[in-house]
Amino acid sequence: MQELKMGVASGEEETQAVMKVYSKEDYSVVNRFESHGGGWGYSAHSVEAIRFCADADTLLGGLGLFGGRGEYTAKIKLFELGPDGGDHETDGDLLAETDVLAYDCAAREKYAMMFDEPVLLQLGWWYVAWARVSGPSSDCGSHGQATITTDDGVVFQFKSSKKSNNGTDVNAGQIPQLLYRLPSNDGNASKGKQQTSEPELRGLKGFQYTATLLDLERLRFVGTCCLRLLRVYICEIFPIAAVVEESSKLAECVGKTRSLLKKILSEGMDNCLTKLDNDPEGYLSQPLTLLEAVLQECHNTFTACFHSFYPTPALQWACLCDLLNCLDQDIAEANFRTSSSRLLAAVMSALCHTSVKLTSILPIAYDGEVLLRSLVKQVSTENDSALAHRFPLLVAHMEKLSHTEENLMGMTSFREVLEKMLVIVVLPVRKSLRKEVELFSPHLVSNTCGLLASIVSELTASALGSEVDGLNSLHSVKASPNRFTKTSQGRSWNTGNGSPDAICMTVDKPGVVLVGVCVYGGGGIHEYELEVLADDAQTEHPGDSAHSHRWTSLELVKGTYSTDDSPSDIAEIRMDKAVPLKEGVKYAVRLRNYGSRTANGDGGMTTVQCSDSVSFTFSTCSLSSNGTNQTRGQIPQLLYYRSEYDGDLQSQLLSKANEEDKNCSRALSVVSAVVRAAKDLLHRAFAVDVDDIPELLSSSSLFSMLLPLILAYIGPVAASVPKAAVEVFGLVQELLPAVSALNQKYAPPTFNPNQSTDSTTGNQPEQGLSACTTSNHYSMIESEHPYKQAGVTQYRVSFPDCVRWTTIEFDQQCGTAQPEDVLRLLIPSRTLHLSSLGGKALVHDTINTWTDLKKFSGATGWPTTVLVLPGNEVLFSLETASDYVKDEKACFYGFKCVAVGYEFNPGPDEGIIQLEKELAFLGSVCAAALMKKDLALPIGNELEEDLEILEEASLQVCKSHCGILGKGLALSHSPTILEALEGNLPLHLQTNEHSFLEDFITCVQTSSGGRLARWLQPDSYADPQKTSLILNKDDIRCGWPTTVVVQTKDQYGDVVHVPHMKVEVKAVPVSQKKSMQPENVKRLQRLPGSSSPPSSGPDLTFGGLPMPKLEATYEPMIVKEARYIAITMMKAYENYSPSENMLIRANTDGTYSANWTPGAVGLYTIHVTIDGIEIDAGMEVEVKDPPKGMIPPGTQMVKPKAEPEPNKIHNDDGVWLRLNDDTVKKYVPSMNGYSEAWCLSFNQHLGRSLLVPADEVRGQSEESLKEVSSCPSHEAPIRAQSRAGQGGGPGLYKVVKTGPSGHNIRSCPNLRGIPIGMLVLGNKVKAVGEVVNSEGNWVQLDKNSVVEFCESDEGEAWSLARDRGGNQYLRHEDGEPHSTGQMFYAFFILSLTF
């Protein structure tokens, strides 16, 4: 093997590590025992360990182990303790280890178990040799030596280790030998881990800064190795599927690694290129290539560890949004290619991984702006990553790190993210059309196209119902009890290389759905084929017992499982689709297993009963030929669920269908956005007269990658969903004319797109020749006839690189005699490497693995049509078992086929031509889907509707009303396809028939339809217009309660009672013009200081009285030894009534009683509303003065008492609190002879507390202001008076509050508006307008303020004066605080409302 130099050269201390492959014979042996002991036993957790140290640098190749009494398995490790390990033993660092290996040796012999590579040991450092041995008792050593000098002069010292728990120490035990070698003949080796690891880490972190001093090739190698080690190690400690132990230290290290990789990928290449250009030595032949290789390795590491760096969907979404939010600034500065291009490209590449479910990361189902907290609640809690549950420490640390590094509050909606990704895809094409420099790297554009295509792919897969989850996620899956009473201790069951194990079963309950089975596992990886079959004789053909037609396959699934999937020697295999089981029908489960021996069950039971009373009955199956039966074998358990226990299956199917329909719409919206962007670019390109336009468009990722992929993904949806087919057909109609016009403009008229190219030159044949439909590349592949048994034969077909497609056509004679004899068809799985040196993308691929595409066996099932495979290589693997079929008529022919390779070398300008073909094909798919005879039009969301019943009902309606329906429907125009699919008929709304029907349904009295409806309904009904009022108009006094009786009548004038009828009665003061009669003028002006009423004006709110004064101080009123605790009893307000709506009491005789207590004299109109319909005629009544000297009935009075009165009193108004002397002195200027002062604490009418403790006064004040702002229209005076205090309206404003850097002036009254200026504390501006929206109060600045404080005087300028939280930034210079009278007036208005 060629020597590779691993190390870092630094001046005179240059070290080199030489890696060489050695055999066991190349090592010397240190025997630490002088003789043998009796025997040495082992347990499941026994560990053998010994410490040792050498006085010279050595290479340790392995350890010697005792055996001698059978077969053993062992695993060895080597730990490094450092120079102080002899005195203080620590846990140490793991340097090397092996897998669990089997070994055996003769008695009193040692077996040399080697490490994969020799380990460099440093002189004077202590190490621990560790071994775990399993098996029978073995030989052991005794009379051990603490110090040994070898023939090479190396002195080894041995000490006991605390890691040993099975008795091995210096004197006796295991590990008798150390296999070592001196590195003197291999060059200057590096000494130990400590000296090599630190320079490697320095090389990783500082390779951009030390490139001028170090050998660039070795630096690239060290950096690449370190990155690959990081990638492998992180994926091992935080895997995607398995569960391992975590620690906070590991989480911190992973966080540091993420920060380092983000820094490397964000810095780009500018800094490094500057230093390389200034290098005086001039050894820069390959710096760009080497640096690009290291950056590509950083990209691969970041992508592979993305699930650990961002373990939750919320963090992944936040990372994507944070990088995309920098897009606008980077585009403006034209530096996005070098700042964040690589990092964003790595994030998008990681999101394109197949293990990432994009619908759980991207808030596709949410409209509008989605903040982080709502995203975490709505998305992460439902579709959270499994890492969040298995690694909480990692998640907590990464969330904390993201809060410090990224702007998590800048999250946007999915639509905004989609628009920004389209900018990345579209902007380079626009720049190229204008011959400008591109901003984005090819990596970023290509990965963005890949992410958009992945989104469409996942949505279309969900829309078609082809996701693996299916309905299984809706149910709790149960496992049946093990049908075997015991399991074999050893793994002795031979899988037979695919020989079938099968068992029959029946179920005794309905609603059972099979979702998988359990199988026994063993060592290594097993490849399986699981099939569920139904007894055809019982389901479809009773009495037919022919074996060849007995079983019908229901579901087939293929895959692999390993030891990790079967911790208890039992692995679960899930099927792609659930299989419902019918009660009493026999089913078979057949398993074909390929792999090593497995465990098996014995003592089988015929019937097993589950916890939910479901019983499975098992019986021997004729399909089983590997030994599995009712008594012993494979398939111990079944995985199932019952739909009747987990909810109605129909409702779940309905929910799944609704979700599929939504995902279809979402996929179409994404495709529509891409198509619109492509259409705009095509129109721009058509307007540019440049010869290389087709080549330019064909080379872009939008037209060569994104559009073909999304068109291919949306095609199956259009073929299966008629509504989607119509929309996709419309998209094709939009895009195809633009593509066709561009091709006609630039393509030559004689161009034949079906014409092949020359394989040697890549050029097309001469014009005028007929199109070539044959190929020059073909191969005949066939096996021996008959084929050999018990062997594996492979045939590989490899065509030249110009071949892009390969077709395979099998001969009709193909066949094998046994099911185990299989022909496997494999194609290569290639890894694409993209590099961009000098601005041009370089693509090369390498074969990673071979993907198993098809398997063929038996005499049937071989392809009868041609198989079309991508690529230029195919591998045929014929794997046969030993001959156990002794039938001479069996087919031992093998296989024979013809492989033909087809070239496809499109020119640089043929991408648009291929796009036109794909659009035409997609359009034909849509047209064919819409022209199908069995086209399934949508019938609504009710899946259980019976179409036959609907058809019969429709026919019956047509027969009964043929006269009306024969005249046709009143349509404004013929319905389009979309209107027909959606069920929206374009009815003509202006026809007489439609107006007549509307009047008929709503019973309009003055119309013919309403009169017909009245005539057709002779039954009695309550007519609001016939309702009458019973009221004594002459006995209505101010402050006295009176009763208003509402009497409901039918259309014939008879009293009628309707249960649950809603009746409302209210008294409204008449207008000033009506109430200003001569006899009432004096009465309406009795208040002192009231002005004469105007001759005309709006309706008065206070019963024709002027607005009450606010200066009056509240005080209880004492009238004839009775104290009235009510505002309306005060002298200033005794003529104002707070009551308008009345309390209604329903009687059972068709009457309703309403209680009303007028609070002021004057004219009122009694309004009655019945079920929302107000009667036409309202009754006008006059409220007169009450008799003098009489107390209004029902008023609460409190007799004066000599003893001290309580501090709190309850009455109809609420709870009143008595004020103490200090408060009275402070707030009451004059008591007017009264000895007490009371204040309303809780308003019974409002249901609110008006006085609260001092610590809550701030919150209660804000609530009171909100209540005042929501008062009815007749409270407008208080709003007008308090408006000035809030600082509203035009005028001069002063800045009273700003942020850390000032207060922004924006181009529009919106927080998303562009900042165009800045205000600081104390500035004064003049406002000419005001806007109130959901964000607060905005004021528009005048031109002088715009010139003084803005960058430009063009356009409008707005600034936020007051936000919704109450924070005031600009205060009106004329504004004054609210006065006590204004606050009291607000309270008084609230009281009047109730």
UniProtKB/TrEMBL annotation:
Entry-linked Pfam families: Filamin, PHR
Taxonomic placement: Eukaryota, Metazoa, Chordata, Craniata, Vertebrata
Region (Disordered) location: 747-769, 1069-1101
An annotated Gene Ontology molecular function: ubiquitin protein ligase activity
InterPro entries: Filamin/ABP280_repeat-like, Ig-like_fold, Ig_E-set, PHR, PHR_sf
GO cellular component, one term: plasma membrane
Protein name, UniProt field: E3 ubiquitin-protein ligase MYCBP2
Each Filamin repeat, start to end: 1144-1175
Start-end of Polar residues biased regions: 752-769
